[in-house]
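Quiz preparation item.
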């Protein structure tokens, strides 16, 4: 996180223009001693001079002050993870106060604001105080609305709408969820195929292949997410439930998802385990719980470089706008463990040795 540093900017820009301190002082209308004090951090320029200095150097006020109100995605992920862990080690209100301080400091860094809103929403589930939880959800919603309204990044705006809908769901406002999302579901687009053809026809075969790989990859990610939800929906129909599970497994095996992107199977494994237990198929439920535990105690990061089919995708994910909600692996693991350990349905397996072994593995993360 970078702080204000006017001195460094003035020295750098003055030297770029080939000016002496005397020449800069003459142009701005101050003494040489004033410029010297600015550059040695003994004092700052008067606030009324800042626009004049920025205009003279042809830079923004932010650049003049050496202040960058943006954070990189890796820095945001590290901050998110650290604050999430702080909820386990520090007073709840203290961590919330730090979150608010970060939001205030980086008010216009919309990727960060989106993540902080997500963290506040997660934190709302960590307190037993219902009034406090509701207030945090409302606070998170305000952040998502601001990102949606003020950001000029289409992917961020889309993510903000989704997260706003998550807030509505957390408040049991299901009509609000419908209002936010029912017109955002996109029909299949042939843009990847068309763009790939254009690349191929102009001799850019690598770009043609990359576009198709990225499109296939993104649709597999989307399909597995939808199938995980469909498994839960199919709980009342045993035959349909089995069919959804088998087709999901076939898709994941065909593209070696367990190896190249294991986190995609976490929700599916948990939903399948839950569904089979409700159908009193204990063995299959335990099979999927064991897969669930294996996944979240292993490496959840994508391993696309190891896959010959998606050999061009890894370096293009950010460029093609893949997910603006960053969930660090450590946070995902702990949350996934808690999902099973705190699910009362699985208490029916508490005396089963296989389940006891699973619980032991999960508690190492929780």
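Solution:
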């Amino acid at each position: 996180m970078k702080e204000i540093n006017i001195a460094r900017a003035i020295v750098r820009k003055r030297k770029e223009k080939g000016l002496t301190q005397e020449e800069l002082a003459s142009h701005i209308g101050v003494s040489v001693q004033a410029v010297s004090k600015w550059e040695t951090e003994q004092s700052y320029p008067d606030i009324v001079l800042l626009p004049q200095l920025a205009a003279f150097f042809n830079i923004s006020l932010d650049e003049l002050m050496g202040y960058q109100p943006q954070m990189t995605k890796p820095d945001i992920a590290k901050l998110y993870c650290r604050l999430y862990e702080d909820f386990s080690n520090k007073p709840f209100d203290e961590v919330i106060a730090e979150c608010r301080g970060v939001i205030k400091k980086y008010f216009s860094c919309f990727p960060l604001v989106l993540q902080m809103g997500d963290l506040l929403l997660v934190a709302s589930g960590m307190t037993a105080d219902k009034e406090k939880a509701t207030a945090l959800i409302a606070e998170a919603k305000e952040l998502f609305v601001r990102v949606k309204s003020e950001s000029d990044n289409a992917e961020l705006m889309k993510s903000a709408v989704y997260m706003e809908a998550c807030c509505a769901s957390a408040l049991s406002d299901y009509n609000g969820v419908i209002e936010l999302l029912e017109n955002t579901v996109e029909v299949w687009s042939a843009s990847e195929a068309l763009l790939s053809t254009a690349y191929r026809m102009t001799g850019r075969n690598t770009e043609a292949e990359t576009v198709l790989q990225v499109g296939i990859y993104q649709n597999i990610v989307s399909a597995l997410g939808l199938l995980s939800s469909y498994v839960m929906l199919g709980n009342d129909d045993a035959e349909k439930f089995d069919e959804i599970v088998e087709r999901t497994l076939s898709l994941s095996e065909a593209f070696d998802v367990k190896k190249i992107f294991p986190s995609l199977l976490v929700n599916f494994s948990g939903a399948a385990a839950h569904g089979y237990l409700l159908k009193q198929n204990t063995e299959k439920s335990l099979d999927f719980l064991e897969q669930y535990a294996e996944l979240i105690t292993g490496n959840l990061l994508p391993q696309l470089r190891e896959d010959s089919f998606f050999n061009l995708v890894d370096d293009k994910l950010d460029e093609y706008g893949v997910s603006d909600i960053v969930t660090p692996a450590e946070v995902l693991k702990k949350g996934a463990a808690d999902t099973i350990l705190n699910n009362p349905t699985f208490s029916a397996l508490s005396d089963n040795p296989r389940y006891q072994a699973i619980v032991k593995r999960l508690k190492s993360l929780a």
